[in-house]
Amino acid sequence: MDRRTFISAAGIAAVGAASACSQGSDGTSERVAAPAVNRGRTRRLRMVTTWPPGFPGLGTAAVRTAELITQMSGGSLEVEVYGAGEIVGAFEVFDAVSNGVADMYHAADYYWQGRSPAFNFYCAVPMGMTPYEIMAWVEYGGGQELWNELSNPFNIQPFQAGNTGHQMGGWFKREINTLEDFRGLRMRIPGLGGNVIRELGGAAVALSGGEIYQSLQSGAIDATEWVGPWNDLAFGFYREAPYYYGPGFHEPGSALALGINLGVWESLASDHQAIVRGACHAANNQSLAEFNHQNGLALRTLTEDHGVQLRSFSDDIWLEVGRICEQVVADSANADAISRRVYDSYLQSRRLVRDWANVSEAPYYRQRDRILGR
């Protein structure tokens, strides 16, 4: 089944799932039809993204979300996708949607931490939540309501619409054996992870994806994180920085966001709003599955075909990084009232799901690896 066929089938399934069962007067179940999708005049919406056009995983998650919206609406909503730089620059998409230049964006919301540190929590924070944990918080732990409260004053309605899974620690031109090796290190790393690098004595540099390779090549930076094996292989970072460290401390599960201009969102009929929500849910789940599969394939290519050297940070580095992460994330919560509320909600949910993970997945992984090895 090719991708376009799969998306079409997923769209039909999602719309069909909107039908529900209810109890009839005789106690038996009866089908209740979903609201009919408006198939009148086509409404065209423009999506701008922070990703290079057509980039695997990140760019295709945006395209997938747009295609799902279009197909699930029967074409009555048509979403056109523009990569970074095609209408506005990568870091300009938030303002473009807020001001109505574009209708929606697909991005990583920690890029907007200059407006409020609370945006970091809706993508990734150092030593923070895994993909399943952040999904649980946003969907059921009160995270979505706080996200609305955070974003709506900027004229934006947000939704989860992708997740890269656990990210790697990054590509380095030299080995990182001690904490001293971070001193003077110039590393491309956004969000609160950049604050951690600064606390370690390095320099954090903000670059869009399309700028990273040239900066490594020219020596403008000494290291970079990006995503994981799949996306990193596509950019060819291994040619410039041979040491690949993982896992990453800075982004244990990076959620991607669809932000819709609030006026556009409120102008949509209820069935169209339901379709957008459903498309975002479907894209979010499919993105995580895709990244897990493709990262496994790409890791083999990097190590077996390109001789990439995998490295792990030492326990001493992890201990100090963990201490700094906790302080950096806590400090970010003191910036404004909404950041404090988001932080408190985030911690409460993380503790809840951590207790479950500690008796379920974590010991299972240890036992599986002990018994089966590779």
Automatic annotation (TrEMBL):
Record GO biological process: transmembrane transport
InterPro entries in the record: DctP_fam (IPR018389), SBP_TakP-like (IPR026289), TRAP_DctP_sf (IPR038404)
Gene Ontology cellular-component terms listed: tripartite ATP-independent periplasmic transporter complex
Gene3D superfamilies cross-referenced by the UniProt entry: Bacterial extracellular solute-binding protein, family 7 (3.40.190.170), Periplasmic binding protein-like II (3.40.190.10)
Keywords: Metal-binding, Signal
Binding-site residues, Na(+): 226
Pfam family, one: DctP
Keyword Metal-binding in record: yes
Extent of the signal sequence: none
Residues noted as binding substrate in the record, renumbered to the chain: 167, 188, 225, 251
Gene Ontology molecular functions: metal ion binding
NCBIfam families, sorted: TRAP_S1
Name of the molecule in the record: TRAP transporter substrate-binding protein
